[in-house]
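hiii, so i know i said id send this last week but things got crazy w the move. better late than never?? heres the sequnce for the chain we talked about at the cafe, plus the structure i predicted for it. fair warning i was half asleep when i ran it
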Amino acid sequence: MRLTGGVREVFVQHLPYRNTFIQRRFRLFTGGGEVKMSLKICFSQLLFLILHANTRIMCRFSEPNRQKLGNTVLYIAQHAKYPYKTEILKLLFLMEERMVQQYHVPMLAIPYSVWRLGPVSVDVFEELSDGPVLLSEFIALEFNGQGIKVTPKRDFCDDEFSDAELQVMAQVMEKYGSMTSDQLIDETHKPGSLWYDTAKEHDLLDDFEQKRANSSNIVIDMARHLCPDHREYYEEILENRQMANLLRK
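okay and structure toks below
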């Protein structure tokens, strides 16, 4: 396959991790303004592009992944002092962030977008806003004067979790589980945080502060603060998990 001119530029510009990671994963050989790829590499990396591009796309969940996500949200709802929509969204992100920081692997491997009150998993946001579909067997929503309260519908099941993941979940709930939504937003928006650094890089901080924007399609790079070796390891595991998620039923 050949990509030339503007097509090549658009293709490359939309790829995340455009330095060493592109060189490692894409094996691009340039010459005469062209990029030549084998069919196998092209298919693999186009799939990667679909998974990672900063656009709103369907996030498909295999049954094991749906069970894992459902049980994670259920676990948070069981243990949070304020089991409401915003608190659960923030605690979910903090679990993913800590898993990446401590073990350099993803936990749920779902994207988190940079919103004014984010970071937010858009799929989970929709589940906790319009009524659960993917998570209907795990939780119910109660609309009251304080917001949208998330109520567990069954007991937590740890079948899909590693010991390390369970440890991280417990650590996050111990440290952040009694915080209010405002406290959790402040925590995830601290200078130097993943949300802050990503919003700053994309010139979103002023728009958010002045309330000129509520959301963006920018996806947080969870490996942003990892050293190169740990980042490479994380990206390999992430790609493998996302590929498996697409192929499994």
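btw The radius of gyration is 19 Å. thought thatd interest u
miss u guys!!
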